[in-house]
Amino acid sequence: MEEAVLFAITQLYMGVEGTTGMLSTLSALIYIPANEKFYIINIGDSLIFGYNPKGWLQLTTDDATRISYKEKGKLKLQNSIPMYMFGLNKAMGGDITYTLRP
Fold it and tell me: pTM of the predicted model, to two decimals?
């Protein structure tokens, strides 16, 4: 698993086949039979859920974030609705980028 993640990060940083600046997410569940334990890994805009008799449970949190968009120190509005920047605060490869959404 570690080698696969390192390979993916390397490819993103090197810009192989046009991947320069891309961000990637990763979710994995690993089961170790010897100790009968599950391990979860999560980074980026993705989630892992588990199921029990009561229903689905969210096991990880999303690494996406929302920041209010300001121009000249004032909150920017679109049709009287505040605008926000959305982006990842944790991801594999590249720099953190944001997109604007109302």
Answer: 0.47
Cα angle 28, 11, 4; round to 5:
30
Cα 49 to Cα 74: distance, rounded to the nearest angstrom: 39
pLDDT digits (tens, 9 = 90+) for 40-99: 877 776 778 889 899 998 888 776 666 777 888 888 888 888 887 666 666 665 544 444
Q: Report the DSSP pairing between strands 81-82 and 55-58.
A: unpaired
Q: Are 13 and 28 in contact (CB under 8 A)?
A: no
The DSSP secondary-structure symbol of 59 reads -
The residue among 35, 14, 6 whose CA lies nearest residue 94 is: 14
